[in-house]
Amino acid sequence: MSEEINTTDLGEKIVNVLKTIYDPEIPVDIYELGLIYDVFVNEDFDVKVLMTLTTPNCPVAETLPMEVEEKIKSLNEVNSAEVEITFDPPWTQDLMSEEAKLELGML
């Protein structure tokens, strides 16, 4: 019986990878920060990530999406990865997880 990975398992692996990427100005990972709006995985294991940045002129606007793409591509099961940046809706602190707010002393 061949070991088959499903898209849900892969989605969880992708989230775990995203939690290793940190915003350089805020000591919280980009997932808990609420910068990841959606992760799509199709049956060919092509991954598309819809994400935002804390501000349009964020200092890592060029490098952060590339880091996200590279880390996702490093997963063996992933066929391809694409990151799309959006500012609709704009990021606000309301998008942060409780964990992130606690980490930053906002609770």
From TrEMBL:
Gene3D superfamilies: Fe-S cluster assembly (FSCA) (3.30.300.130)
Pfam families the record matches: FeS_assembly_P
Residue ranges annotated for the MIP18 family-like domain, each copy included: 12-84
PANTHER family, per database record: FE-S PROTEIN MATURATION AUXILIARY FACTOR YITW
Protein name stated in the entry: FeS assembly SUF system protein
Organism, scientific name: Siansivirga zeaxanthinifaciens CC-SAMT-1
Lineage, highest ranks first: Bacteria, Pseudomonadati, Bacteroidota, Flavobacteriia, Flavobacteriales
